[in-house]
Structure formats: C-alpha cells, structure tokens
Amino acid sequence: MKKTLTLLTSATFLAALCLPLGGCEDNNAEVEKSTEKHNERLEENLEAQQKAERERLEAESKARENAAEKVDEVIEDTEDRIDERK
C-alpha cells in the first residue's frame, strides 16, 4: 500500500511538472532546441578562436621573415664595408 501511494504521488508530481510546461514532449523539444543553439554558439566560438590563432601564427611568421630579411641586409652591408676597407 505504501509503495503504491509513493508511486501515485511520484506520478502526480511528475504530471504536475509537465502539464504547466505544455507536456514533457514540448519541454524536451525546447531543451533540444536550446541545446542545438548552445552547440552552434560553441562551434562559432571555436571557429573564431581557431581563426584568431591562425592569424596570430601567421603574423608571428611574417615578423620572423621580416627580421631575417633585416639581418641579411645588415650582414650584406657589413660585408660591403669590409670589402671597401680592403
């Protein structure tokens, strides 16, 4: 008797939760829709982070190339000066 009463109470409680929300199916659909939107935002954020990281790495690479070119120019200038002094 006590188990039956507990089950009825639990079922009534669940029904009371679902009915104001338009039924459990509607609530599940809302949760799924919300989850999809959240996952889309996560994907967009991940893509933005990956793009920013690629851009940062490209900028660092370009800076290294520029620095290497400047070093090469300084070496050439120094070699030219040495040759002029001889």
In short:
The protein contains 2 helices and no strands.
Overview of the molecule:
The protein is 92% helix and 0% strand. It is an all-alpha fold. The protein has one domain (24-85). The mean pLDDT is 82.
Secondary-structure map:
Layout (H helix, E strand, L loop, with lengths): L1 H17 L5 H62 L1
Number of helices: 2
Work out the oligomeric state of the chains in this entry: single chain
Number of structurally distinct domains: 1
> How far is the first residue's CA from the last residue's CA?
112 Å
Regions with pLDDT < 50 over 5+ consecutive residues?
none
**What would you call the shape?**
rod-shaped
Structural class: mainly alpha
Number of strands: 0
Attribute tags:
mainly alpha; 2 helices; 86 residues; 0% strand
